[in-house]
Amino acid sequence: DAMHEQLDNPETSEKITEALLLTIERYTSLKKCEIVGRLFRQYMNGMIDSELLRRMAAAIDDAFIDDLEAYLADDWTITSKFKPYQAQLVRAGLMELIPDGSVGGPGRPMYRATLLGSHMKAVLVPPARLLGEAESPD
């Protein structure tokens, strides 16, 4: 109810509507629209605020859909092995390059999810899957 009341606020509803329409209009993939729709549902459920929704929508806009889908489908521990999508999601702000602990050389590239990427994954991926459990057949 509180979320619906916020949408009655002209300033808040204008920001959200503008962000959603501009983002969806730019998408060449309906899959991206579906992901933004799932995020909007989380906004309506109070899991994320309007600023975080806009930041996530902008990251989705910057990401290549195949890389984004690979990230969302991957297991939660992603820093141990290099996966092709990781470097591509740095530009979108969902992943970041981290030091691998090598001394005296470049080492191998390692990536981890940024705070934005972790939060996006946490609200989009069922908790059981993040823990490696089988999903329930609901």
Rg on CA atoms, Å: 17 Å
- Element pattern in H and E: HHHHHHEEHH
Q: Point out poorly predicted stretches.
A: none
Number of extended strands: 2
Largest sheet: 2 strands, antiparallel
Q: Averaging pLDDT over every residue, what do you get?
A: 78
Characterize the structure shown.
- This protein is mostly helical and 138 residues long.
- Helix content is 58%, strand content 6%.
- A two-stranded antiparallel ribbon has the order 1-2.
- Helix 2 packs parallel to helix 4 and helix 3 packs antiparallel against helix 4.
Brief rundown of the structure:
This protein is 58% helix and 6% strand. By secondary structure, it is mainly alpha-helical. Helix 2 packs parallel to helix 4 and helix 3 packs antiparallel against helix 4.
Topology, pairings included?
Blueprint: H1 2-8, H2 10-26, H3 30-44, H4 50-62, H5 65-73, H6 84-88, E1 95-98, E2 110-113, H7 115-124, H8 127-130
Antiparallel strand pairs: 1-2
Helix pairs in contact: 2-4, 3-4
Name its key features.
mainly alpha, 138 residues, two-stranded antiparallel ribbon, 8 helices
